[in-house]
Amino acid sequence: MIVVVGLSHKSAPVDVREKFATSADVLPQVLARLSARQELSEVMFLSTCNRVEVMACTNKNTSEAEATHAIREAIREHAGLENASELDSYVYARSGTEAVRHVFRVSASLDSMVLGEPQILGQVKDAYDAAMAAGTLKSYLGRCVHRAFTVAKRVRTETALGAGTVSISSVAVDLARQIFGDLSDHAVLLVGAGEMAEAAAKSLGKGARSIRVCNRSFDRAAALAGQFGGSAAPLESLADELTIADVVVTSTGSPTYVVTRDMVKRAMKARKGRTLFFIDIAVPRNVEPSVHEIDNVYVYNVDDLEHQVAEGLKARHAEVAGAERIVEAEVAEFEAWSRGLDVQPMVVALRAKTHAVLFAELEKTLGGRLKHLGEPDRASLRQMMESAVNKLLHAPTTRLKASASDGSAADYAEALLHLFDLPTHASLPPGVASPPKPLVDDPAAPAARSEDDDDHVRH
Amino acid sequence: MTYALATSLFYATAVAYACASVFFLVHLAGSRFGATAAKLAPRFLVVGAGLHAWHIVVASEVARVCPVEGIHFAMSVVSLLACVAYLTLRRRWRIDVVGSFVAPLALSSLLASRFVGGGELAPGPRVKGALLPLHVAVNMFGVALFSLAAGAALTYLVQEKQLKKKRLEGVFQRLPPLDQLDRVEHRLLLGSFPLLTLGIVTGTLWTKKIEIGGIFPMLHAAFGYSAWFICAAVLLLRAGAGWRGRRAAYGTIAAFGFTVMLLLVYLLAPTSDAAVAMHP
What we know:
Chain A is of the alpha/beta class. Chain A has helices at residues 14-20, 27-35, 64-79, 85-88, 97-107, 119-134, 139-158, 168-180, 195-204, 218-227, 238-244, 261-270, 302-318, 320-342, 344-367, 375-406, 409-420, 445-448, 451-458; strands spanning 2-8, 40-47, 51-58, 92-95, 187-191, 210-215, 231-234, 247-250, 276-280, 297-301.
């Protein structure tokens, strides 16, 4: 059974989450410590800035509660917490189908702080790679996580959950690209050198041809420009700077307009009409609103950008239902595959018994009445018998696996155990379907069974 | 047999252009099949252009008319050249969406060349001369590039309006960057202008050789010179006074409007008048 134990942005504040954050270099030790627990057969550890989760598969004889407790203990030790109760209010646990659904939803970014953000899939893939490298992932949890990648891909391609932009800086960069195309031929001017200017420089400065910082304090402008390989200019030269720059980000604390309509009109003449794009993230605004009316000049203020962010989020939220449907379909498919695994011992036992009985009879006959046959004929008979076993068991095997998918495996299992006198270790594990009754060894059973039971077995 | 083949090719071309137009518009409308439509549209345009070229060869043989001697054929060839120019440039200049303008234009030009006026199988020109093929040929290439410039200008205006209105969803996301459209429009205008100028010069020389009169030649002259003059003004003002973006786009579309009027007058004119080439 798969279990997930962890904490995320939904259950724990950042000061708690940061205690559990794990860097890639210590991940092998964490995985080794977790996989050493006898309750767990497979382990994966996911650590991002918004979540820390242990995804694990329990051992055959371990209950969900035991496995959850073991993981809680391990992560408490990892975070260096003395008291287990410190953890309890922040940690959640999922098991079985809920855990599979959780893994799929996390990978598809349905559980992310920013809905539909693409980074989480890469982080899950990194965690998967680390667990594979450490040898703590095997066929069951490994397949579940691998399936989660497919779910994430389907959600991304079949819905618009990842479409649109949902942060102010990305909206600003997208707008600049939608106006100018490639920014590598264009100059960026930052008016103001505060934190917001720095954030804008990080987003816009990367691909731009050049970056200039214009600020009342020249030293501060020079310091910020230095961080991004740009150059500084005094605020007095702003009018001249407007003739050179293509994207202008304003973020000064000035109570009046820093960029006026007349200033831009003059600049546009000098620019011979080249397009000029203002991103005004200051409050109060730095750019006179009527500047937007000038030909080839576009002014977007913080409200405009936030409106786009809200639109982007709204559009993503509208896609959640579709994404959840994909997740549910994939969970059902995984569960069907998982139940197919549960009937595997029954299939093996049935084949083994059939094989043993038929081949014993064959060998007896070959040693008696057919003793005169040569080796090629004996090999042909064995081949024929093998083929007959396969053909005989094909339909029951297929139907048994199909019954596992629709939840009726217990009925078939009971019938098979009874009719073929199979060993009881071949029965279905508890929790997947009801265990077969020990009809064979119970002398009172035939008498105790009703006609309904008989019908049930026959069906 | 050849006539039947020409007719079949004509309709097959029309169907391919119509499919391309529909797919371009489906992509532009942002339908859920938009991504598939965006892939299919240029493919249909390629098929359409191939069939169109074949049709022109076969139909020329049927009508015994050289494509550069008759206005109906010339109009058909213009739309083919516009498609070829678009298909050549779309990837390089990232102007896929301009296909939404080119494909319907190609379809309407193709249909007009057959169903408006005498049709492409009408008798050839009344008078012939060395200047006529040159005049028609340069104008065909010039108008083909010019129609692409008009497509880019129209797309620019749509994109610019979205930006000014701050509507950044829907069609805005599917259009190329604003500056890219402006640059493409300018380049195409620069490419078409010398050809159109040569067309004006040869047309003027041609009219001195033949006797023309009546309303249609007057209209030819008015529309032809107007289109050329606006085109020249847009280029000059862009270079001298910084006329970019919206103003340049309006100018280009206005000049293209006059060109369309000119072509319509030619198509509707009596056959004898159609002997005079595309510009006065």
